[in-house]
Structures are given as C-alpha cells and as structure tokens.
Amino acid sequence: MSLRIRQAARALVLSADRHVLLVRFEFPAGTRWALPGGGLESGESHLEAVRRELVEEVGLDDVEIGPHIWTREHHVLFIDKKWDGQREHVHLVRVDDRFEPRPAVGWDVLRSEYLHEIRWWSIDELATRSDIVWVPGDLPRLIAELERDGTPSEPIEVGG
Fold it and tell me: Domain map of the chain by residue range?
C-alpha cells in the first residue's frame, strides 16, 4: 500500500528583534508548537499556499515570501484518516516588527483545525524550553543555524 502524502507549506516568520511566530496545536497525542501554514488547495503552489495560510492563520498580508529553506516529511495518520502524512516546504518570511496576530478565518475555524494559540517566542527562549514539543523537533537548532550560517543555497531536509 502506498502512502498518501499531502503537500503543505509553512512559514518561518522571523522579526528583526529575533522572535519567531509560532502556533500551538492541541492534538489527541499532545501539544505541538509549529510554524504557521497548512495543506495546499487544489491547483495551488507552495508560495500561494504560504501567502494564503499567513492571512488565514495570523492575519499577515502583503508580505514578501522569502526562499524555500527547509523541507520536512513526516508520517502520521491524520485524524480524518485521509492522509498518512505530509511533505512541507518551509519559506522564510522576515518582518521588521512583531505584529499582533489577527487570524482572518477566526478562532472557531482555527480551533476546529486544532490550532489554539499564536504567539511570538524569542529565539533565545526556544533553546531553553526542553518541556515543549517543537515542530520540526529540532526547531531551536535549525533557527540557530539559520542565524549563524545565513539562508541556505538549497532547501535543507529536516526531520520530524
């Protein structure tokens, strides 16, 4: 049997003062802090999906979508059992200032998708929180490498 892998797009939103915007999911398997984004709609490109998801989930519109920096594939049976996993393209999005997230779709829709909170985290704080499950799992290290080494010339394959 072949796996049914959904294509998805996510954004690493970084502010000039070294904060990252993350969303909190509450799944039956536990809490996960992840990058904003989601599955591609029919006929949609990864860039179009990132732009749409940023508006829907955090209210960020009219922003420059940066390069595809990471690719992540993970296998997990989705709650609706339609997908066995997803393959995500993560794009870098830099913003000058932290903004107050205002989801365009509203909290009822987001909660129906298991998303319950949006907040800015300082990059330094990420590395100190071993009690949190990040998605991807090594998010603090990946961001530290991005800061140290700059934008990769080719997308990096990152794990779970």
Answer: 5-158
81-119: pLDDT as tens digits: 665 677 899 999 999 999 999 999 999 999 998 899 999
The C-alpha atoms of residue 151 and residue 76 are separated, in whole angstroms, by: 29
For residues 104 and 127, what is the distance between their CA atoms, to the nearest angstrom?
30
For residue 36, the model assigns a pLDDT of 97
Q: Which DSSP letter does residue 29 get?
A: T
CATH class of 5-158: alpha beta
- How many other CB atoms are there within 10 angstroms of residue 158's CB atom? 19
pTM for this structure? Answer: 0.91
Dihedral, CA of residue 55, residue 61, residue 45 and residue 134, to nearest 10: -60
Check whether 75 has a pLDDT greater than 70.
Answer: no
* Cβ neighbours, 10 Å, residue 90: 25
- The candidate with the shortest Cα–Cα distance to 105, out of 65, 52, 148, is 52
Backbone angles phi, psi at 109, to 5 degrees: -65, -45
**Residue partners of 55: CB distance under 8 A and separation at least 6:** 61, 104
Tokens encoding 126: 């990420």
Region 59-68: mean pLDDT is 96
